[in-house]
């Protein structure tokens, strides 16, 4: 059961995008403030968004999930309205290990100490991978959406992948080059990024795009996003190499868009069978973001696994 700790939780009212959800800023033990949207009752379920979105990406499935679970949707550090801490040359502040620790501390602040299920999309799934490795007693089961393991994708880079996922190589360039280039026209960059990944016209409504853009126009957000990708290309790979003998021990469901890059370039299930002991998965009729492109199909795929 969620506990309301007034010393560390600041309520911010109802979500303007997701019916029934309330917004809160939660001050973690490490001093980071995390914005989260919360609703529902029952076992806790954490939903982690990717880039360039925030928790609003779950708007089409969250109300249905809240009928069965207590749904917690954070903006991961650096994104949305969560804190964007300073970083340094080794990018540790934006490593997936630090982002994963935020989620554990968040759940503790909310009074969930007995574990939770997890759904992660894109960057959120990469945080989820580290969560499942570092906290196997807390993460009861995981769903990763439209990713192959980071180290695998870098190791198998070819012209096709580098062309489609150019931002993996653009955003990791030394500061402040990518930050300044995006800041020159963030709306253009954001629109091209989303339209290039989603294969369902109108899946991101104008008001939702405006919400994503509101965050993307923040210079600290652009810095944090680049640091996230810089960490993935350096420190995260080092952490993965150090833990290459480990496997995710709890059940894992992997889903991917059949029209997207990940599904077309990789045998997604096989890549995760190298990283986890219990893997199952299927393709979704969409591009990169089934939660926005085919929400009913996504709910049909995840509910049997979660329940």
UniProtKB/TrEMBL annotation:
<dbReference type="InterPro" id="IPR029058">
    <property type="entry name" value="AB_hydrolase_fold"/>
</dbReference>
<keyword id="KW-0378">Hydrolase</keyword>
<dbReference type="InterPro" id="IPR000073">
    <property type="entry name" value="AB_hydrolase_1"/>
</dbReference>
<protein>
    <submittedName>
        <fullName>Haloacetate dehalogenase H-1</fullName>
        <ecNumber>3.8.1.3</ecNumber>
    </submittedName>
</protein>
<dbReference type="Pfam" id="PF00561">
    <property type="entry name" value="Abhydrolase_1"/>
</dbReference>
<dbReference type="GO" id="GO:0018785">
    <property type="term" value="F:haloacetate dehalogenase activity"/>
</dbReference>
<dbReference type="InterPro" id="IPR000639">
    <property type="entry name" value="Epox_hydrolase-like"/>
</dbReference>
<feature type="domain" description="AB hydrolase-1">
    <location>
        <begin position="44"/>
        <end position="293"/>
    </location>
</feature>
């Amino acid at each position: 059961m969620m506990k309301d700790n007034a010393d560390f939780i600041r309520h911010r009212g109802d979500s303007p995008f997701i019916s029934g959800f309330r917004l809160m800023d939660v001050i973690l033990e490490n001093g980071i403030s995390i914005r989260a949207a919360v609703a529902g009752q029952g076992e806790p379920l954490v939903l982690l968004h990717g880039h360039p979105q925030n928790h609003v990406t779950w708007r089409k499935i969250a109300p249905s999930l809240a009928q069965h679970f207590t749904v917690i949707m954070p903006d991961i550090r650096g994104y949305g309205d969560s804190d964007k801490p300073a970083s340094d040359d080794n990018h540790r502040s934006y490593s997936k290990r630090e982002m994963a620790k935020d989620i554990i501390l968040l759940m503790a602040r909310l009074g969930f100490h007995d574990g939770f299920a997890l759904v992660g999309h894109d960057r959120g799934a990469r945080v989820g991978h580290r969560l499942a490795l570092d906290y196997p007693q807390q993460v009861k089961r995981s769903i990763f959406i439209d990713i192959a393991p980071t180290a695998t994708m870098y190791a198998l880079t070819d012209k096709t992948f580098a062309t489609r996922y150019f931002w993996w190589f653009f955003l990791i360039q030394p500061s402040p080059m990518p930050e300044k280039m995006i800041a020159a026209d963030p709306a253009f960059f954001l629109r091209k990024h989303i339209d290039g990944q989603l294969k369902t016209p109108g899946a991101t409504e104008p008001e939702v795009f405006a919400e994503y853009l509101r965050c993307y126009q923040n210079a600290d957000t652009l810095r944090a996003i680049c640091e996230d990708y810089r960490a993935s290309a350096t420190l995260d790979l080092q952490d993965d190499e150090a833990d290459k003998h480990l496997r995710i021990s709890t059940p894992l469901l992997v889903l991917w868009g059949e029209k997207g890059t990940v599904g077309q370039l990789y045998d997604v299930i096989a890549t995760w069978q190298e990283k986890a002991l219990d893997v199952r998965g299927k393709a979704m009729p969409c591009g990169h973001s089934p939660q926005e492109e085919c929400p009913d199909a996504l709910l049909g795929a995840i509910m049997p696994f979660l329940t």
